[in-house]
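Subject: Predicted fold for Ras GTPase-activating protein 3 isoform X4, 451 residues

User T.R. writes:
Posting the sequence so we have a shared reference for the thread.
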Amino acid sequence: MKLAGMHYLHVTLKPTIEEICQSHKSCEIDPVRLKDGESLESNTENLRQYVDRVFSVITTSGLSCPTVMCDIFFSLREAAAKRFQDDLDVRYTAVSSFIFLRFFAPAILSPNLFQLTPHHTDPQTSRTLTLVSKTIQTLGSLSKSKSASFKESYMAAFYEFFNEQKYADAVKNFLDLISSSGRRDPRSVQRPILLKEGFMIKRAQGRKRFGMKNFKKRWFRLTNHEFTYQKSKGDPPLYSIPIENILAVEPLEEESFKMKNMFQVIQPERALYIQANNCVEAKAWIDILTKVSQCNQKRLAVYHPSAYLNGHWLCCRASSDTAAGCSPCTSGLPANIQLDIDGDRETERIYSLFSLYMSKLEKMQEACGSRSVYDGPEREEYSTFVIDDPQETYKTLKQVITGVGALELEHAQHRRDKFKRTKYGSQEHPIGDKSFQSYIRQQSETPAHSM
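User M.O. replies:
I've generated the structure tokens; pasting them so everyone works from the same file.
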């Protein structure tokens, strides 16, 4: 989640975390910790506002959740519901345990570890973030006895501000959205979640052979199940497009109808041409429709940027209305996966783990060699792990052990060279400090790992 969701985390939390750090308001609600001159009521209100703000940005961020995370949450939700059929809330708690407990709460608690802040926060801000993190974690857990989940009485009292059904509903809507897998099977979410609605102008799709293809103002409504339009808000839908039938959502060139701010929702048999009120609204509709349909398996790779009029496509002049598109579809949305990691540090960690468990690797290699030539009863010391393909595993382990050994030889040589170059009285080896020199000598005398 940290790799795939880092960008999502930054977009969602960073502005609010920065505001908390910069405003530096006191939020201490423990009466024992209150400083002279501080007001418990004022601090409580400050903390409540922060929690509300963080809760709001999280629960309204469902559409920005990376696809790979949604897919995993979908699988997790389905597996948990199948395994614990008597627990109706398990489909929520299984997902919230990851997204709240292991993703958002730790990022709020230690924002510098997630690059949300450049440095460690000061003690007062750190305390504020701790209280916010505790509350958000409890809100996301959907536990039936919220106040009892706090050890501190002041936290239980503070949580009463959030003991309303609207908070539980917001969490459930958010969890429904991020675990519906966008929707490989959007109807796996029982309740439709309204994503966007508003008036726009649409062109008749030509579903009737002799119908007029004119433009009409309609009320459009998008949920995670379908995209519909009706005459007015609250009327029954005149037409519905299931989310899984949306093959692409792309802008429509102005020359098609001499109208600005138009886009097209492409379906298997036809395209729905729509004009938004302005360019901002058009982009917003294109973005949200693309997000909610981006996992559809039959999404198009190419499309027609202009309309089909008078027996041909205006863009490529092809005469068949079923002709393949002439322009590549926009990639839609960025993958939102940013590998913001220190490659050297992670590689060093992998090496250190191999080095630390070298004896176990060697034992496993020995077991692989034994099993490759011996099919008798398992020896007791080899029965603690299962090896599906002893020959291939043996080759892999040999490469790992050889690589680690080569690195250790390089490290030993580096330590010896560094020891020779280091001068007494230098910054690395100041006068009076013998620890560095003894450390270098000790390391240089350590033999490389026995191969």
